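Lecture 7, part B: from sequences to assemblies.

Below are the input chains for today's worked example.
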Amino acid sequence: MNEELEQGATLARGLQLLQCFGPGERPLGNGELAIRTGLDKATVARLTYTLVALGYLRRDAGLRKYRPGPGILRLAYPLLASMAIRQIARPLMKELATRVHGIVGLGIRDRANMVYVDAAYGPDVPPPYIDRGMTVPVLASAIGAAWLARAQASEREQAINQARVSEPGRYAASAMRIQQAFRDLDARGYCVSRGYLSPSREAVAVPLGTALRSELYVFNCAAATDGATAEEVRAVLGPLLVEMVARVEMGVGLRPL
Amino acid sequence: MFASSLANGLALLHSFSAAQPSLSHGELAQRTGLSKSSITRLTGTLVELGFLRFDPEIRRYTIGSAAVTAGFGLLVSLSIRQVALPWMQAFADRQHGSVSMGMRCGDEMVYVETCRSHDAVDFRPDVGGAIPIVATAMGRAWLAAQSSALQRQVSAELRAADPRAWRCHRSAMMGELDAFASRGFCISRGDFQPAVHAAAVPLRSVVEGEVLVVNCGVPAVLLGRDGLRERIGPGLLELARRIDAAWASGPRG
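Predicted structure of the full complex, as structure tokens:
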């Protein structure tokens, strides 16, 4: 391999190692990381050494294994701190979450997933909770459907292609899912799904009218069904979320006050 | 044994800040000292993996969404955040300030959780935000909780990393390490953000092998002459012991 290609490949492998430390993962040693990534152990050792030196991994000397380091959190800070929409939306999200005794989230797309950048909860809402950095599949969630229905064709295609590898089952049904998302957004102004994190919830989602700085933001709202039918819950949550998103759009200047 | 392409790629990501959330190709070259052709290759890889995005409207790069996803594993493993959150929020609301939890990262402390009161404050702490150890209450409180051998080692590292900050804040930091022994908290009176004074207390719970610290920053105008030492510091000490107690007795999801 020539030196130029090697540069990009080394960087990609290092980031791939960081991505091994997902939620619920135990500390991992060089041998385990080599198995997971398919890299040889010497390469892995060189990458983990570099990542530890820079604060992206922490080495547990007793276990001789690695854990994610705080440097990883620093990476996203400039993005999150400069998202003015989070500051504008936060009180509105809290208000809606409290009103429906549910959860309101804000997400953007990361490859074949939607990743949450903020969330608000009503009082006494039981777990599971949404947290910053948590992901749900684009092809299996209301928030993903709403993104699909409003995204640019090229980005939509990219997300679907990324799902082709990671989730072949969902990929097979993607065309149908996209059509449904278009119909829902068109007819009702919101997309719907059974709660992805908890099947005892129903979820609705609404995208911003247009992208902000070419990033398309999507809000979702989920609440427990508590004996009501899915359709009944959606009919309550949907219009409230549509109204909230309209207020966010005014706040960020996408819609006149 | 250092993988320099990996380090260079991460240095590119590290060039972005809350004040400079988007950078052009030329600005990246200026900040990292890398050649333009290296930057082309490395940004290509970073965009492909979602860690950077290129905004064609403004022809600039911003941090990409994969960076948000990458931090989730660490946040989940620090489950003491969930235990602490309601207490932190109540304290922030009561004191009209912001309350954060942080862990050490080199010569800085990085926030892993933040609660703000509704009052607008110039400095907006958030998860992933980093503050210097030497100038902040949180950094000083972290240092105060370490063995004297580690304190000496870290002090040497701090001096080497930023000699100017060390000269400015060393004596205030040393004073706080002494004061910690008697009062159990450290303070900083605007050494980091001039208008914000802060106190901090290390948790006794060791989580994931780390000493975590909680701080509270309040606009100086709200504090009066002794508010930091008499109100915020002792209150924060009580908050920290509550979090420790709840963590010791609660489930460790």
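Note for the exam: The mean pLDDT of chain A is 94. Keep this in mind when comparing with the next example.
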